[in-house]
From TrEMBL:
Descriptive protein name: Alpha/Beta hydrolase protein
Compositional bias segments (type: Basic and acidic residues): 22-32
Organism, scientific name: Bombardia bombarda
Domain Alpha/beta hydrolase fold-3: from-to ranges: 111-335
Tree of life domain: Eukaryota
Pfam families found in the cross-reference section: Abhydrolase_3
Amino acid sequence: MSNIPTAQGIPIPIGGGADEPIPDKKPEKAKDATGSAPSRFYLKMTAGFWRSLQVVGMSLHYLASPRPPNPSFTKTISSTLSKSKGKFTLHFYVPKGYNEAAKTGKKYPAVVNFHGGGFTLGKPTDDARFARFILNTCDAIFVSVDYRLAPEFPFPIAVDDGADALLYLIRNAADLHIDTAKLATSGFSAGGNIAITSPLRLKAHLKSAQNSPPVPDHTIRAIATWYPITDYTLSRAERRATSIRPDQTLPPTLTTLFDTSYLFPPDLDLADPFLSPNKATDEMLAEGIPPNVVFYTCEWDMLLREGEELAQRLGRPPINKDVRYKMIPGVPHGWDKSPDPLRPAASSEELYLECCNYLKEIFERD
């Protein structure tokens, strides 16, 4: 297996940050985690640099055989839940037979996906290799969300966009040939966070909506989350110290960019459940999380412990979700996005297939 950390296909220098001091006090507000953050303009320029590198890395990632599919079509939609109004795009990957659905009347399950990149990098096509397994194994539509990125659009805009994407698909299911009784979310890294928090955000919206247009009946059956970040009340130094290979974790150069970009304004509460689902109440998780959770973590990842903690909590009373949890041995965070043009990352295809077999089983239940 690859032992080179990557961020959305970009090889990252290893070794930095392993000896950084752990703060005496856990961070409570954004300013506690980010300190004296650079200007938003500087963050925007820095993010632009990393985004350009990401294009190169992911281009190499796409070259390995078998080549991943391209989106079949896109839909650009308007935000409705966010205070920061704007538009974002949904990328649709569709299974065989979809173009005849208008004639046959067939409805398909839909998996709504969120890419990784620290809420700062990444594109909706980044998980196209995973999309191939969703199409072929689950016979489902794969909808990858081009949610708005920080630092231009800090928390909670990505989570709001995720919930808005779900709302759009539910309301337009007939035209899109989607079976609203068979929905799931998926995501990687930061996107793994949104895969968890967007159903929570949608549930909160549905509970509080007064005069909103009615939302048709629907069922989100499952979440498939890959190495998500789930608890911002842990400092990066504390996280690295828990890793058995801190030298294999993403360096402060990158994690600081991610955190200072997304965690804004300075008085942002880091225990907000839409930011840190580990801090959500049992009642909120029991009501807002689907009945089935497929949860993957990486052995060398600084996010392993918080992910493991949330997976175990979701499976215990009083939450009682059906959790299928696996820690992937001997790999760092984001190993599956290796920029190797010759072959997919070791074991990534097997694990994608395993995950999709779980989802297929869930979709086929009465």
